[in-house]
Amino acid sequence: MTDPKGIAVGLSIPKFENQEKVLGEARYIADLQRANVLHAAILGSPVPHARIRGYDVSKALAAPGVVAVLTGDDVPDGRMGAFIKDEHALAKGKVLYVGEPVAAVAAETEAQARAACRLIEVDYDELPAVLSPEDGLAAGAPILHEHLADYVKVFDAGSGGNVASRTRFEEGDVDRAWTECDVIVEGEYTTQAQAHVAIEPCGALAEYEAGGRITLWSANQSVFRVQANVCESLNLPMTKLRCLTPRVGGGFGNKMEAHIQPIVVALALKCRRNVRMILTREEDFEIVRARHPFRIRMKTGAKKDGTLVAREIEVLLDCGAFADDSPGVLGYSLLMSPGPYRIPHRRAHGQLVYTNKLRFGAFRGFGQPQVSFAGEQQIDEIAGRLGIDPIEMRRRNMLREGDAWFVGQQVASNGLAACIDAVEKASGWRDRPKATRHGTKRRALGMSVTAHISGLLGTGAIVRVLEDGTVVLNTGATDIGQGSDTVLTQICAEALQLPVDKVSVASPDTDGSPYNWGTTASRVTYTAGRAVVGAARAVEAKLKQHASEMLECGVGDLELRAGGRVGIVGVPGAEVSFAAISGRAHWAVGGPIVGEHTLVFDQMTHDPKRAVAIGLPFARIGVFSFGAVVVEVEIDEVTGKTRVVEAWSAADVGRAINPQLVEVQLEGAFVQGMGLALFEEMVWDGPRLANPSLMDYKVPTSRDAPYAIHSIIVEAPEPDGPFGAKGAGEIGINVIPSAIANAVAAGTGHRHHHLPLTSERVLDGLIEAEAAA
Amino acid sequence: MTGPRLVRPATLDAALAVLAEEPDARCLAGGATLVAMMNAGLAEPGVLVALDGIAELRGITVADDGRVRIGAMTRHRETAADMRLAGGHAVVRQAASVIANAVVRNMGTMGGSIAFFDPAADYPPALVAADAEIELASAAATRRLAAREFFVDWYTTAIEPGEMVTAIHLPPAGTQPSIYRKHARTSGDYAIASLALVLDGAGARVAVGACGPVPLRSDAAEAVLAGRLADHDAVAEAAALLAAAADPVDDVRGSADYRRRLIPRLLQAAISELLDTREAA
Amino acid sequence: MIDDRQDLLLQVNGARRRVSAEGSDTLLTVLRDQLGLTGAKRGCNQGVCGSCTVEVDGWPVRGCLSLAAACEGHEIVTIEGTGRDPVMAVLQRQFVVRGAVQCGFCTPGMLISARRLLQDQPRPDAEAVQAALSGNICRCTGYRKIIDAVLAAAEELAQ
Ligand code: FES
Ligand code: FES
Q1: CB contact, 8 Å: A699 with chain C?
Q2: What is the topology classification, in CATH, of domain C6-81?
Q3: Do A281 and C44 touch (CB under 8 A)?
Q4: Is A668 close to ligand 2, i.e. is its CB under 6 Å away?
Q5: CA angle, residues B205, B208, B214, in degrees to nearest 5
Q6: In 3D, which of C76, C78, C73, C114 has the Cα closest to residue C93?
Q7: What global pTM score does this model have?
Q8: Residue among A199, A200, A707 whose CB faces C144 most closely
Q9: Read out DSSP for A680-699?
Q10: Which terminus of chain B has a lower count of CB atoms within 10 Å, N or C?
Q11: For C100-135, what is each residue's pLDDT tens digit?
Q12: CATH 1.10.150.120-classified regions of chain C
């Protein structure tokens, strides 16, 4: 599907940094070595909820190698947070979950720092703990954040008590609509906490400069969010902190907001030395962040012919101790909860409740895998009751071009129908039985569809023409391994008709890069890509201005020619090279050529004439990608163990700038979603995380994932996207738990309402369904 | 935190001498478990006796009468690849082949694995079903213990201070098939439940893993199975006896209740699979 | 606690390297912190993730589960030391062009495991590759492109 005219866009160019990675030469945070560096370690709280009466750090300070001990008394009272500023650099006054950093030590070696942490004494005045959202809402529940009302919030959160935020959307007349329905399905669903398990644990390295300025390297998804969080929590002017990034060993939302960067910076300022801290895997599990457990009540109604009439959803989210990205997850999951369907009457509402657990936050899919688990199963259930094929059911109701999304935004490009067609055809859906049995194994097919939005928040790009006519691109977007450096280079190269090797990419630097909110929310290709196109167009205009003077013609007569030249349309020999132009600009006329462009997505999410929206965290959100998946599962009747045998995953990404990188997004998202569907689960034993290790928390290995994951790229170009592109990072995960649950239901006759679909649950369902039959 | 002193004896006697002299000495076999525990701060041995230089602890020998001796330092990889472990011994080979993953199987050893005895590990039920004997040595003496007696309780074996596992002995096995079946969350995880089954004459020996403090074997259940392997009611009765004797716990891998329900299902499936194999052969 | 920091002589990537290690130091720690060989990564320090995989005497092992002192007298090879091996060169090229690399944190360990597979079994099928790599966790790729890269390398080497 590549455009034959493209010289860069549409090509599966290997990512530029692959070579250094296969040689083992890529440098990640833990690989950075610095002279004169101190090693830091943290002490985690042993209790879930307590006031801190005081500290005795004398023994720790006297321990060998120790240079400084940091406690809540040493850090300023600033608070950070993406939506609600509720979090200090480390616990101050109170601790809110087991493992929360209460103190940190900087010492000459890591072992000394860890040993000294154990010598710190903290005097806790224990308080009753809130271990579930339901507990948090109960009358008389202990309050985690007594000063919640005073916290800075970036939207109308409706906070109060232990409720961090509330959101409510409504369109049509839901209450009356039920009477028009011939079939109504209704149910309560729960989903579990999932750990991100980027294989690189989080870490940070602060370099202290005389004068007190800090250069901070860290595992991150946004140097700008790191800068903002550190400066807000430590009350530092942003000029005092420069944030940079080494290679990042994977990020799925976990490295977007702060982790330990504020602590490391505070220690560096205190010691006036370089300080480094790398979390252990166990600490990474215990203190970074995780996917929200959801409790969902959902009801969907349809007419006899399958036409969807109404849907209502109510969700309760476990926020953990700090709000982090959670208000966004609540709002987004509700916004997406109707699915990519025409449903005239819909209501979605929910609450986010503080609990004494680690913070939950952004995780690929941003709440969608959870609500889709309920919503897409209900679509299948209705189809089943009405005797309609699940794919046909979705076709009848799917959102079409020009339709509005829930609460009002117009959807521009829409490749949903093509995605559905593609997975139907590739999987042979029509000609295959949906469930079969061989010996003690059952096989079954399931499907699911989804939409996702990319486009949030501020972005910029700078394109500078070097003296030899090559260009350097600077966007500030952290490449977390997904390949954005390569993709943005392809976009820049295409816009300027240059070979990709004539474009280099500057590493994100808060001192020198234009702002980029972050590598998150499937947004980089779309938003940064638009900024790159805009900056390249500005460069093109300047190049043409020079060329018109050099070739003595009008600007309008000029064209960019492949390979870095500007020429007169229709006159093959009449051209000047970028090098000649750039030389002239640098040394003679006009000055060096730099193009820049910044933007923030400008369409409103909410149309007040159409719908009610209270507590909407994203006034302007972005453009829509679509996806569909078919999975084939095999269920072992002996144990209930379910494995995916084959999968077909289609996504409308507008335009695949680099098809190979889109495919691997779909494949990686599939396997991560499969883990969520089948066995990944963070388990608490009271207030304490019971399985913070890779021994006890399992992620899929190469043997658990199917080899046959077929990624199918659908291209419905987005009018304002860079060469038509839109997001691809998350669309592939949303559909996986629901599609697998639909397949398990087809294979066993039992509908599951609780994730994960462990072998135990599937076996129980199988036995129950057999008994009922 | 500086950690243990490592000694690397070249002979078994030298190793045993260190164990006799140093009360806080521990054997370092493949390291797969011990070093992980040290990294987590769960073990702080004073002296480590590395066994990898001791030739007499390595390798598998099969005697003419069919007896097998597996040196304690034999890696899982070697055990998993040794096709001489056939018939009634195949259960041990199969157990070796599903431990963790290929890389860990290059490190881990049978002696090290059973000395740590995780009840959810793969060798214990396989060795119990195979009627293996564990050879233990100290500076003073060498003794052999039936696997059933070697595994004493959760994470506890019959190894005395100053003693180490030197070999595992398997009695001669017939040509009748045997099987090891493991049910786990993911490839390489410890078992939720596992089952080792060895056909023996007209009956079978069965051991269940991960469903109690030690590998579960029931003489009563085996008595029911004797001569009635193809009889569904007998299998069901034996399975019920096994399930009743199990003492599983809830953990992150599965509930006790689920484990109890799995036992009969695993047994029935394993028996029918083995009977099919026998028929085909 | 006995202070027994001791000098060790390790054979790493074909060269004799003198290091000074504590008894509890793992091979991974010594390679990374003393020899500057940071190709092997620490993803868990518990033997599960496989990002620390290196070769000892030709066999892939966990760097994080190998005590440095116990590695004296053994031949250690890390990703940095595989440069002259034609099998590794083909694997690396296929990983690059087939998109088997995302964040790359798992990649060095994955390559060490893959090389051993191709030495033992020059023409594996997808299932054999899945089995051989199951001790190397990748959270990014979904494995498909890694398996394809290994299969393509096997094919290229067979020609
Ligand atoms: S760091 Fe060694 S296996 Fe994870
Ligand atoms: S590429 Fe990121 S873990 Fe494999």
Answers
A1: yes
A2: Ubiquitin-like (UB roll) (3.10.20)
A3: yes
A4: no
A5: 110
A6: C114
A7: 0.96
A8: A707
A9: ----EETTEES--STTTS--
A10: C
A11: 999 999 999 999 999 999 999 999 999 999 999 999
A12: 83-158
